[in-house]
Amino acid sequence: MNNKELIQWIIIAENKKIKNRRKVELLNKYKDINQVCKILNIKEDLRINKYVDFMKKNNIKILNYFDKNYPKALKNLYDAPVIIYAIGNVNILNESKAIAVIGARNASNYGIYVARKIGQFLSRNNIHTISGLALGIDVNSHIGVLKENHINCNSGKAIAVIGNGLDNIYPYSNQNIAKDIVGMGGCIISEYIVGTKPMKNNFPARNRIISALASKLIVVEAESEKSGTMITVDFSLDLGKDVLVIPGNITSKTSVGTNKLIKSGAKIITELEDIITEEY
Prior knowledge:
The protein is an alpha/beta fold.
C-alpha cells in the first residue's frame, strides 16, 4: 500500500460524521479505498501526514480493514473500526485461543490475586489473555501473563486494548507493564489515532473490541450493574460469548456485580481448570 492510500484509510477512519457501519459497507462493496473516498467525498487532511510520520518512527503498525493482520473477529461487530493501530506482535491478533479477563478498577486484594493467577494459568496453557490495561483486575491479569512469559517465552501472550492513542499509555503507572507486554511478545492495540486523549466515552467503545477478540469472557470482580465491566459483559452476550464469573464475598462491594451475574445464570469458576474444561 502506498503512502497516499495509507493516508486515505486514516482520513476515512477519522471522519466521525460517517458511521463505521457505512464505511465498512462501502469498503466491502467496492474493495477500493480510492473509490470509497470519492463516494464519501473525503477531503485531504494535512494533519494526517504528521501522524503517519510519527507512527512510522515509533513502530506503530496501521492495520486497515483488509490487512491480513487486522483482527478478523472484529468484523463481527456491527460498527467494526476501519483501522486498528498496534504496537508489538500483531500475528497473535488472529489466533483463536484468546480469553478476556476483566473486572473492577478498585479491586480487592483477593481479586488482584485471582486475576494474576488466571493470567498465569491461561498463559501456561498457551491461551492469550485480553484485557484493558486499566488499574485493578485488568493490569493484574496482564501481570500474571508476564510472570509466566518469564518462565516460558513460548507461553500465551498478553493483548491489551486501550481507549486512547498509542503514543500515551493510560494510566501512566502502567507504562512499564505495557513495555513488558510488547517486549515479551504481546501486543497493545487501539482504534484511536495517536494524540487521542483517554476520554471517558472512549472506554465503552474499547470494551466492545475486548469482547469481540475473545472466545469467552472472565469477570473477576464488578462493583455494580452500571460499571464498565458490566458493559463489556453485555457486549459479550450480544456476540454469543460465554461469560464465566469468579464468585465473591457477599459482604464485598466488588462482588455485587459478579454475584448478580451468577444469579442470572453465568457460569461459575471454582477452580482454574473450569476455564478450559469445555473448549481447550
